[in-house]
From TrEMBL:
One of its GO terms (molecular function) is ATP binding. PROSITE patterns: AMP_BINDING. The modification N6-acetyllysine is found at K621. Acetylated. Deacetylation by the SIR2-homolog deacetylase activates the enzyme. CoA binds at R193, G194, G195, K196, T313, S532. One of its GO terms (biological process) is acetyl-CoA biosynthetic process from acetate. ATP binds at G393, E394, P395, D417, T418, F419, W420, Q421, T422, D508, R524, R535. Its EC number is 6.2.1.1. This is Acetyl-coenzyme A synthetase.
Amino acid sequence: MSEATEVRVYEPSAELVRNAAVSGMDAYKALCAEAERDYEGYWARLAREHVTWQTPFTRTLNEDNRPFFKWFEDGKLNVSYNCLDRNIQAGLGDKTAIIFEADDGTVTRVTYSELLVRVSRLANALRAKGVKKGDRVVIYLPMSIEGIVAMQACARIGATHSVVFGGFSAQSLRDRISDAGAVMLITSDEQCRGGKNIPLKPIVDEAFGMGGCESCKTVIVYKRTGGACNMVEGRDVWLHDVLQGQADTCEPEWVEAEHPLFLLYTSGSTGKPKGVQHSSGGYLLHAILTMKWTFDIKPTDVFWCTADIGWVTGHTYITYGPLACGSTEIVFEGVPTYPDAGRFWKMIQDHKVSVFYTAPTAIRSLIKAADANEAVHPKSYDLSSLRILGSVGEPINPAAWEWYYQNVGGSRCPIVDTFWQTETGGHMITPLPGATPMIPGSCTLPFPGIQAAIVDETGNDVPWGQGGILVVKKPWPSMIRTIYGDPDRFVKSYYPADFQGRYYLAGDGAIRDAKTGYFTITGRIDDVLNVSGHRMGTMEIESALVAHPLVAEAAVVGRPDDLTGEAICAFVVLKRSRPTGDEAKQIANELRNWVGKEIGPIAKPKDLRFGDNLPKTRSGKIMRRLLRSIAKGEQITQDTSTLENPAILDQLAQTL
Ligand code: WTA
């Protein structure tokens, strides 16, 4: 039977249901009903039970200045205290907090007590360098214990961190330092991935050389490899030097619940990336709740989220959630295919991982590798420690879901297909492993308390079985608070006038199953692409292309890709005549590398084509729907009568 017609329902095992934090669908429904009855009371109860407050809050939700919502606003807390001190006070001081596995396989363990000392020493060092509450600190580090320590140290002193993914270019780094007005940057000499040492510090130097980073007075450099590293007198200091003589304890800065814990830049449909600003109290609450309910985290679990700390998944499910719950987690420096594509399975076996959270792209690439080589197939490893699997970042196609379920989870572990976004802070729509019957390809039902819905262009609910626009009808504690430095853009992007500012607009399309009401995400409804689970704005890539001296005009669209979900396809018009043959290939390569330098390698177009022009309407608007069809290799059956230059279509259909 084909994938489309067979709908299999996977029930959680009786044992899981019995022991789960949210045990059975009745328990799930009871939580939803509680939120329905008394929305604020529900979140207030959870915030009191799961977060440790230095000053308790008395007001739960303040909607006076909507959509700039405030949660628990008169409460005070410290996020690092919640992740470290309170676990140690509960007797977990000697428990392993982090098992770090380096690219070369070296394993380092850190206990909660040791982690607190490391965080405190760095926090003291940041204070000694003049970093104060509310200052922005950019972190440009590889996956490392130091990366987590740096984020937690910022949280400890109330500095707002902005982590920039280690794969971003000097230009992207510069833009983020400049937009945030960061006072400090923490980086490393190099990073190690796939058996190679990749310089990082030279990218920092290049970013500073571009100008615009004047606010940033100090660069702290973690010596990861000891490779050649230029240190700028008066600005750059080694991490091991600034830690010298720092005390092992550090009084946390008690901050208001709304205090910005971090900024994280993400692609939007227009212009430059936006600095999504998150709170402390509400964000932490959702990180904890989702760890407990979506991952059913237990004291004996070994948790592994394979994301990078440069993405939101790494923030919530590496740096904050697992530590706030006192769990033991794996932090992995390397890549899934080195030394071979069995790395994930070997690490699950070696460290007895019980909860494993990864992305569909990784699974799809590992399926391919396992098909080609039995030695790297999950069945060649002992994965019996696993009890729950998770997926994030993009839709997981049913075939990949089934493979993951059977071969990795041994047909015994539920898969939580978690839908959420940088802006939402944590899971929004997801199965709960001891409650929700699963249907491959569906992220199932909203997390208890999350008012997800599907509406039409005017904001009216559409019936189940009919596609529409995904919205969230009520504010929730871990939501984005604003776009740093651009509150208008925040309102326009997420609370648009289309819905009279009533609903949060996720930017995705979705449909609910006519019978079960289960949600399936149908993809972005804006000009944002999802390539291997990474968000890329088409406009950003177009701007990068037209910044090249040869390029007159460019249009970027996505097309479906078996491995990466979506692939970037760029249509380019040069200032000179349209190149052909080897010359076209050579220029295409040059442009690809250019985009890699402007944004980062993840933004390089997979498919790049040249035309004398782009398909435009008589009023000069680029017809993107035509480009999408061409990119897919479809015959053009659409109406092209409004097209100024129909002959261009044949030209653009030619791949290089
Ligand atoms: C997509 C990553 C389908 C979606 C946490 C969303 C998903 C964007 C899923 C956010 C999922 C994320 N099923 N699509 N389970 N999870 N997405 O900000 O388009 O990097 O809007 O956050 O990824 O990407 P972001």
